[in-house]
Design brief:
The chain is mostly helical and 201 residues long. The chain has helices at residues 4-16, 34-43, 50-57, 67-73, 86-100, 110-118, 136-148, 161-184, and strands at residues 64-65, 108-109. 21% of the residues are buried. This is EF-hand domain-containing protein.
């Protein structure tokens, strides 16, 4: 757990600038309003306007949503959905486009989104969760650290299975980086030489 102190500091820093309040009592049913559900679960925001939602999920800031951006908004490439059938994921993207891109241009512009929302349209609930689209650090912080820890948490308090798995992953990444660096410093990496070219004993 070599990186716990650094990660703990990062989590505490992010807690200080937290996203706003969020409680289970005011959580919305995803079938009623998936966008609000997503914002509550993934961003801890309950008060936002459609334009802000669009901007937050316009990941390349070009003024439109592509299929990849809808896919990312719904978190369809998240590890938690790795065993979900591809056709279910594709259907989630297609359903959003049917609502907000009825002419089939392949993008959803800000105007299409805002006009659709004004007409009462909402992003449909795909039944595939809240849309995890952050990196590992963000997802750990928002779904575990903020829930069970706070800025006063000490290293010895990080004993939940989620904490252990999170920091084990950090250790593995650090070990791999050290291994690669060590190999890069070698003139010849013997294990990379095919067996047929090695001296047989």
């Amino acid at each position: 757990m070599r990186v716990i102190a650094a990660a703990l500091g990062l989590c505490c820093l992010q807690l200080v600038s937290a996203h706003g309040s969020h409680s289970q009592e005011d959580s919305v049913n995803p079938a009623d309003d998936w966008a609000l559900y997503h914002m509550q679960e993934e961003h801890h925001i309950s008060n936002f306007d459609p334009s802000s939602f669009f901007s937050l999920h316009d990941f390349n800031n070009d003024g439109s949503w592509t299929a990849d951006e809808i896919r990312r908004t719904y978190g369809l490439d998240d590890e938690s959905l790795k065993n979900t059938a591809a056709d279910l994921k594709d259907k989630a993207v297609l359903n959003a486009f049917k609502l907000f891109d009825p002419t089939g241009t392949g993008i959803i512009t800000r105007d299409q989104w805002l006009n659709g929302v004004r007409a009462g349209k909402k992003l449909p609930d795909s039944g595939l969760g809240p849309g995890h689209h952050g990196d590992d650090e963000y997802e750990y912080e928002i779904h575990h650290f903020e829930k069970y820890h706070d800025e006063n948490t000490k290293e010895e308090d990080l004993i939940h299975p989620e904490d252990i798995a999170h920091f084990r992953k950090h250790d593995m990444m650090e070990d791999e980086a050290e291994r690669v660096l060590k190999e890069q410093q070698q003139n010849i990496v013997e294990k990379n030489i095919p067996m047929k070219f090695r001296k047989q004993q």
